[in-house]
Specification:
Blueprint: E1 6-8, H1 14-17, H2 19-24, H3 26-46, E2 50-58, H4 62-86, H5 99-105, E3 106-116, E4 120-129, H6 131-144, H7 170-175, E5 178-186, E6 189-191, H8 198-204, E7 214-215, H9 221-226, H10 229-234, H11 237-246, E8 251-260, E9 268-277, E10 280-290, H12 297-314, E11 319-320, E12 327-335, H13 339-350, E13 355-363, E14 367-375, H14 378-386, E15 390-393, E16 399-403, H15 405-408
Parallel strand pairs: 5-7, 5-8, 12-16
Antiparallel strand pairs: 1-3, 2-4, 3-4, 5-6, 8-9, 9-10, 10-11, 12-14, 13-14, 15-16
């Protein structure tokens, strides 16, 4: 026997107690509906990152129907919210997120006017989404969505007499949208998608528009499958191209932050920026930033992001890596303090843009003899190694990798 749908207000017991009577008293049903929806509507108005939807699902049992309704409802609510923040229906790129990724975007939700039978479930859901994640999602959608072109060929907001784009001006500005991968390298462990990643949180609060126009991936299943922290640091061409494609971007900026001192109150942060185009290195730069007196770690990282966005937009003093048609290899001896130190140093070497191969020839507790395959000239390799506080010195007969004063002081 199929039961009638039973109404109930979210968060109260009165709706369930009066459920059977409500079906025979339409006025009470209307009043209950208004009382249940009103709080959600007010919450939607008060929270710019909330959306309210009506859900209705049928399944083998009410538990499955409720789960189906919630999953469908959060997707429709997120789509409506992104379209609203992007400027209207049809203005945003269709969402390519799985149900788990969308669930991770939900901070909390409210349920009103629940009605259910043995196989059917209906309700009014108000979903409250995480503001920082939604800002990134809206920024990604805006960067990946081309301007609408009405009949006649002129983009929206222009006239037929508008002058063509001038090379080096607006066209270059649009081309500066870049997918940013914030890698946090602290305590010998590099993080990209794993939490906590305060460096990624700092990028969440970066401007959505401006000279750089950063696009911060959400870290959904597609992003995680495309690239991880190790591949990002090593400049894996296939991984960077995949994550760029997944996020509708072209260039990829790998931003590596290594705090100096305690992460909560560091003395500074060393930022390494590597920009890739079609998966290949285009330019790189090191940016050491000292902490202000009493400055907390999260504040320092936010200030570092602001400096990067402003500086990258105005044009870097580029440490461009030319001469990639040249290739070479050399054998070097690196002094270490044990196995853990070797593993840490190998990760740092793997993150150097010009390094293409690291082969271990011999290992002891005091030193590692390694073969380094690289592109470019030896001088370019020395410059790149200097960015991670290593000096490459000619020895007899082997080269030596020595840690410079900045590295020894950490």
């Amino acid at each position: 026997m199929t039961l009638p749908l039973v109404p109930a207000c979210a968060g109260t017991r009165i709706g369930r107690r009066l459920a059977n009577a409500a079906w025979s008293m339409p006025l009470l049903v209307v009043m209950a509906l208004l009382l249940c929806i009103a709080p959600s509507a007010r919450a939607d108005d008060a929270d710019p990152f909330a959306a309210t939807v009506v859900v209705d699902a049928t399944a083998d049992n009410v538990a499955k129907a409720r789960e189906t309704a919630r999953t469908d409802g959060q997707r429709r609510a997120l789509t409506a919210l992104v379209e609203r923040l992007s400027g209207g229906a049809g203005s945003a790129k269709p969402l390519k997120l799985d149900d788990k990724a969308i669930t991770n975007l939900v901070a909390n939700f409210e349920v009103a006017n629940e009605r259910m039978s043995a196989v059917r479930y209906t309700a009014v859901y108000t979903f409250h989404f995480r503001p920082a994640d939604i800002k990134r999602l809206v920024g990604n959608a805006a960067a990946a969505t081309p301007a609408a072109t009405p009949p006649g060929g002129s983009p929206a907001g222009t006239t037929a007499s508008s002058p063509p784009a001038v090379p080096g001006k607006a066209s270059d500005q649009a081309a500066k949208s870049v997918v940013v991968l914030p890698v946090y390298d602290a305590g010998g462990q590099a993080k990209l998608w794993d939490d906590p990643n305060p460096w990624r949180e700092a990028w969440d609060q970066a401007p959505l528009a401006g000279a750089l126009q950063p696009v911060i991936p959400l870290g959904d299943a597609g992003d995680i499958a495309a690239v991880d922290a190790v591949k990002a640091k090593s400049g894996d061409a296939a991984a960077l191209a995949a994550v760029a494609k997944h996020n509708g971007g072209g260039d990829v900026l790998v931003a590596i932050a290594a705090p100096r001192g305690p992460p909560d109150h560091p003395s500074g942060v060393d930022v390494t920026l590597r920009r890739y185009r079609t998966g290949q290195p285009a330019e790189s730069r090191s940016l050491p930033i000292a902490a202000n007196p009493g400055e907390a770690g999260d504040a320092l990282l936010r200030r570092a992001v602001a400096a990067i966005v402003a500086d990258t937009g105005s044009g870097w003093k580029k440490e461009t890596v030319p001469g990639y048609d040249q290739q070479g290899s050399l054998t070097a001896v690196l002094a270490i303090n044990g196995l853990d130190d070797w593993v840490h140093m190998r990760e740092r070497l793997a993150g150097v843009p010009t390094v293409r191969k690291i082969a271990l020839d011999s290992l002891s507790r005091q030193e590692a003899t390694i073969e380094i395959g690289y592109v470019g000239s030896v001088d370019q390799l020395k410059t790149a190694l200097g960015a991670i506080n290593l000096d490459l010195v000619r020895g007899d007969p082997l080269w030596r990798l020595t840690r410079n004063g900045a590295d020894r002081a950490q």
